Every structure is written in structure tokens, then in C-alpha cells.
Amino acid sequence: MLTYIIRRLAWSVLLLFIVSLLVFFIFYTLPSADPAILRAGRNPDPDLIKELNKRYGLDDPFYKQYFIYMRDLVLHFDFGRSFQNNVDVRTEIFERMPATISLALGAAVVWLCVGIPIGIISAVKRGTIWDRLTMGLALVAISAPVYWLGLVSIYLFASDIGTLAPIFNTTGNYVDPWDNFSQWFSSLILPWMVLATAFAAVYARFMRSNLSEVLDEDYIRTARSKGLKERTVIFKHGVRSAITPIVTIFGLDLGGLLGGAILTESVFNIPGIGRTAFDSIQKSDLPIVQGTVLIAAAAIILLNLLVDIAYAFLDPRVRY
Amino acid sequence: MRVDSRTRPVWLAMLIACAFAFVVAGCGSDDSGGSSGSSSSSGGATVPGGGKIGEGKQGGDVTFLAAGDVDYMDPGQTYYTFGYMVQYAVNRPLYSFNPSSATDPIPDLADGEPEISSDQKTITVHLKPNVKYAPPVDRAVTSKDVKYAIERAFTTSVPSGYATSYFAEIEGVPDNAPIKYSALKPFSGLQTPDDQTLVIKLTKPVAQRVAAALVMPITIPVPQDYAQKFDTKVPSTYNENVAFTGPYMVQNDPQTGNLTGFDPGKSIKLVRNPNWDKSTDYRPAFLDSITISEGNDDAVVAARRTLEGQKTMCCDSGQLPPSIFKRVLDRQQDQLGKVPSGGSRWVALNTSKPPFDNIDVRKAVIAGFDRTALRLTRGGEIIGPIAQSYIPPGIPGHEESGGDKGFTEFDWMQNPEGDLDLAKKYFKQSGVKLNSDGLYGGTDEISIVGDNADPGLSTSTVAQSEFEKLGFKTTFRKVPRDTMYTKFCGVPKSEPNVCPSVGWFKDFTDPESMLEPTFDGKAIKPAGNVNWSQLNDSKINQAMADAALKSGGDRNQGWADVNKQIVAQAPGVPYIWDSSFQIESPDVNGVMNGYYTTWDLSFSSLK
What we know:
The structure holds 2 protein chains of 2 kinds. By secondary structure, chain A is mainly α. Chain A is built from 14 helices and no strands. Chain A folds into 2 domains: 75 residues, no CATH class; 220 residues, MetI-like fold (Orthogonal Bundle), CATH 1.10.3720.10. Among the domains of chain B are: 174 residues, D-Maltodextrin-Binding Protein, domain 2 (3-Layer(aba) Sandwich); 235 residues, Roll (Dipeptide-binding Protein, domain 3). In chain B, strands 1, 8, 9, 10, 11, 12, 13 and 19 form an 8-stranded mixed β-sheet that branches. In chain B, strand 4 and strand 5 form a beta hairpin. At the A-B interface, helix 2, helix 3, helix 6, helix 7 and helix 13 of A face helix 1, helix 7 and helix 13 of B.
């Protein structure tokens, strides 16, 4: 197991290197705004543009810029400074991380608590009206774009403009949990539900499908024949087998969200990494774009590694 | 997919549930609710937008919803509307604008009008005594602070977007600005004979223009004894440690000056400046505090929160989403602020390459273009008149340019809905190949690079269809607005034939700031170029140089003559002199400022 982990970590480093190179390459080959001209103002002096290009190293060749960036990152864990407002990128990202983690983890709890039980019940009650209703609603939930869902939920439920039941905190009220726990919690209820909706639906459908298949297996029939309680058959034998693939996708999904749920953060004005990345892309602020992408990639890689390790505990047949 | 009878009720129920959600959400966007939909009882505005100037309830806190962030907090660097909105509430330049007039600046830090010598090469400004900085600086402003504020803007630590454009004629300004801060020496042309007097000496007789530019934030005082330690860094960190002189200040650490109330991208908290002396200021400063909440990317949500909420103002973009705009015009006009934006928008034709290097082709395009359709993409007639020249209303020289009617002797400008017969006449006169309809018959495609987001996208799309109506074959590339300006339209060597959604807005109330950057051949730059037509006519260039040296009524007429020459060259299709719009909650008495075209936080109040 240890050898496996070390090998995976080594591959992770290579992967992060490739991701960083790709981001640099995309930034320089696709037409984006010129950061020096943007910083210089709307009628910029050519000497000022030249000075800013020099300051940001933008007049250096692409490979030199990349080398300097990676050197600072590896040796000093320095992500550079924003082209736009000169803030330290590392500080900016880590300041915004609590918001993204809060959003992602909270939504994960909601979608697991909702999606998996629904999937189990649907599998057990396969073919009934309950099954059809839940799976139909799941399809609707998967199809609804999260941005649209977010806006609709704000128009229906936000405390200041909600028309149906204005019971949830409106947008833009996020604070970190150590500043005001109750405001933090109340500001995230609606975003959690919105973000969790599609995931819960996917997980419900996935769980139903897997469990339905498992419940048809011979060993389940054997377990029932032995006189075990139905609950024991379903949970100890059925769910345990069916949940393994869900662990995999959970790792991918959570890893992706920890890199920033851009749409949800934008709709609900949550100052997380996703929104920062979106704003930076629009302003061609490469250091922040690079930093947020690397953090997102690292989160996905790490979560995947944890998932693979968890597999070994969930499934005794898996050994590294 | 077949649906059997057992499942039909289930699907029907789901469909109804979805439809219900749509209906309720849709009703919510039109249902204005009780109080916000009522007719105005505020007595109406006596000035552009919002409430009555100088009248308001003392106290209270307001939230301003913004999508983006200020460009800078540093007065030497800020150059955009949103930054100005904050800056003019927390700081005091030499001159500024009372909301009652967007054209005549009044003394702010200054104690009277600028005294201009007869040779137009010296400006003398006297400062009010006893205007104090907020903590931690805690002392009176002196003329040396204004001198330093201007000087620092020519260094690499403080990259100012306009210092070299408007203040380069000050004696002693280095030729190779921006320079390193360590190389900065006092400018011989900025003299401070005493703490309340600033004398500006110029190398050329351009005092009229420089005096007009004294309204800009570059003249906001910066105490060198406090700021120097920040300015030695590259870039300066004064942006996070600004000293304040206005009725408000950004919340800070009173010991160090660090702006604790400035969280970039998240919020800005403005509180009262404890050292502000009301007797030295024309601003009433009714509110106790203003919280600027940023990141409100969805303009409709932000607008609805404002219109239906309390103690809220919006928005930093100056433009409302169409659905909100319609609703406000129909039912909530008392919550709308409007001022002329002091700018023009046009479709720029690249005169440096075919086919628009031919003046008659350009005239044909303008003649045939439906400019009312272009204006509709911005909101229609309510937004503003069809632009007939490049000096908008409110800028000196506009009336001398024929006012809103423009120069009536130019027939290609007289029919904003387009005149195809006249277009055909000019196409024929141009000598280009014609098609069977007598319109442009050339085979080369013209390239158009425009915004990929509304309203610029709509404007560009309409422009493309107008060109095709006139016989042109087009390719239209959509890119983000910043990319459009910095990689295509602002870079002469990669500029397309047409930049359809450009615009220019005043820096100060002087026609030179409208025409020189945008149509002077000498202003064409390899990057960051704003002479998008690349107009380079030696007669016009010389006329501008001559007009720049004039003053008073001669100056206005001189620039009007330049305006006429520019319009005669048909470098673009001007289509609107537009307005800026803001909204407020029903309990807010917002007052618009016509200079920076957004809410004036130091005049706004609660009802």
C-alpha cells in the first residue's frame, strides 16, 4: 500500500506540472486581453505599457516566464502576484478557500443524505410509483442547469426578493464560520440545496441502478434463504457492494467542487475560489488563473487518491 | 417514448409542478409588490436622477451592490467610474462637481477659481486652510501634498493612466516618464510658495486644458511623509493605505492607516471621517456609512434586491438589464437615477486600409446605416439622442457644433434611419465596384471584431447586418470586451476593418479630452490605441494643435471646428450620446453626479 501511495503521489506531481504547462500555453496561444494594457488604463502611455510588461515579465519569452513561475512555486510555494491588484495569489486563494470548502462539503453532505437513501428505496421498491416518481424527478434535477436553478431558488426563496416563501438568507451574505457561525450557516442553506440537487439526482439514479443489479445476485438470494432480516440483506450485503462505484464518483465530484463551484458561487455571490477564477479569466489575470487551476487539480488528484485507498477498505478483493 | 396509463398521472403531476415553478418565478419578476410599485411620493427629482440635492435625512447606512471592484483605491491610479464614485466620497481633489452641474467644476480643496496667467502658461490655485486628513495622518493638507500627488503619478510605482496625457506640459516632468521612484526629483513647474498656494508652470500655453483637468483624482493630496514608505515599493502599496480628506473614509487601522475596510473583490466599508470639517466642504454627507458589496454578478438579482429591498443602491455598470429597465420605466421611475454619460458611442471604420480608406465609401456607409437600430440595442430613445458628432451634450463645443442636430450641411448624417439612395450616390462617387442594386459590390470580406456579451454583442450584430444590407461581405469575430480593445481594436497592426462597439467618455469637461485621444493622428499608438479609426489627417491634427492653445469662447469654437472636420472625414458611424442609469430602494434618496455618472454617495441619504 505504501509503495502504491508513493507511486501515485509521484504521478500527481507530474500531472500538476502538465496542468500548469497547459494553462500557460492556453493563456498565451488563445486571444485573451493584454494584462499590461488593462492595468495601464484606458488611454495608456506606451512607456507605461512597456514598464508594466517588464514588471510582470510579460516581455520575456514564454519558456522563461514558465521557468520563473515554476521555480518560485516549487522553491518558495509562491504563486506570484495578481496582475490586477498586486495581491499575493497564495494569500488570495487561501483566504477564499473556506468559502469553497464550506460550499462543497455542505453540498456533499446534503446530496449523500438525500441521494443515497432515495436510490436505495427506489431500488428496493423497483417498479412502484415511488420509484418512477423519484427517478423522474431525478431526471428533471439533472437536466436543470445549476445557474438557472440558483436564480429560480433566489426568486422563490430569498429573504428579500423571494415570492413563494422568502425564508432563506439572500445572496451576498456569506461570512466565514469563525466570524459569525449562524450567518455562515444560514447564508449557505440555499446554495447547498441548489448545488446538491443535480448531484443527489445522479447519486440516486446511480445507487438505484447498482443496487438493483446487486439485489439480483445469487448471494443475495442465498442471504435471504438463510433467513436473514431483509434490512440486513439490503444494507450489509447489497449496499455494501453497490456503493463502491459511488465512492469513486464522489471523490471526483468533491475534488472538482473543491476547485470552485463557479456557477453557484457566482449566482449566490459566495467569495470562493471558483468566483475568483471566473473573475480572473475575464481580466486575463494569469497568476490567479494559474493558482486556482493548480489548486483545483491538486484537490481532484488528492481526492482520487483517497478514494482509491478507501476502496481497499471497502472491497477486500482490492489490494495494492 | 410511450407513456402508459399507470404512469401518466405521475408525469402530469411532474409537469404541473415544473410549470408552477416557472410561473411563480416569472410572476416574481414582474410583480412589483406593494410599496415599490407605488407612484412617487418623493416630490420628484429637481436634478438628473433620484432625489433633491442638499435635502435629506441625516444618518443611516446604505448598501451599494456592485458586480466588480474598484480599479484602485490609490487616487493617483484610479481611472474608472466606479473608482471615482468611491474616491470623490472619501477624498477631495482641487476641484470637483456638485451634482447640480456636470459642466462647471467648483472649488473643493481649492479656495477659489484657478488663476490663469494671460500667457496661458501659469496656473495659481489657493487651497482652503484647515482641511485635515483622517487618522493616522491627522494633520492639515498643504500645497506640498498636492504637488507630491502629481509628481508621484509619473513614477513606475504609481502607474497613472492619464498623467502624461494631461499634465506632461508641467515644467520639470521627465521626458521618459514613468521613471523609477528613486529617480524622482521635484518638478520645477510645481511651486509651493506657502502651505496654501500651488503654482503650476507650463512649458506650453495649455493652461485652459490643465486647469480643466484639475478635477481629476491626481490632484487629491497625498502626504509624502506618510506615503513615501509605500511609494518606494513597486507597485506602490499606498493603495492599501490611502490617507483620506473627504467626508467619508474607508475604514482603516487608525494607527497604521491600513485599509481594514477594503477587501478586494468582496466589499468596501465607508465610514465617517472624524476629522472632516463640514464648514470647509459643499458636501452634506448625510449617511453614516456605506457598505459596497461586490461580486453581485447577476445584474437582475442585484437590481431586484435593490428595487424591492431597503437601504440599497445599485449598480456599478451604469446600465440596467432590459427586463429591469422596462419595469422601472413602467412602474418605478422614482427609483431611477439618470444622467447623460458625457460620452459618445460609434462604429469605428478603419481608415488605414481598404475599403474604408475611401472617404466616399465611409460616407455611403453612414448614409445607409440605420442608426436608430443601433441605438435600440442600447435601450432606444430613452437612453439618449442619436449622436451627430463627437462632442456630446454637456461638453463645451457641443452647441457650437450644432447641438443635438449636428452639422446639417453633411447630408450623409441627416437620416438616422438610413437612406439607401444617398448611400448609392456615395458608393457610385467612390469608384468602387457596385452590385446590381447599386450598393457595394466588392468581393473581399470586411472583418468585424466585437463584444461577445450584451449590449455590445447586440450592437455588433446589428452593425454586421447593416453592413451586409449595404452589400458588404463580413466576418464577425466575437471576443470578450477587454480582448477586443487590448488585442484587436487597440492594436493598429491587428485592427480589423470595423470595431462596432467603441465609445469614449469625458475625463473632464473639455472638448480636447473627447477629440484628441480618439481622432488625432499623433495619438495613434502601437498598443492601447483609442484612435480606432486610425484617422490621421494632417489638417485635423494641426487644427487640434491650434485649438489646444485657445481659451474661453475661442477654445469652444476652435474645437467645434475640429469636430466638424472630423465628422466631414466620416471616420465612424456615431449612434448615441447615451445616459447612465442607477437604481435605488424606495427608502433611499439617491442623488446622481453628472461628472462620474453614478450615485453621489456624499449627497445621497435615506428618506
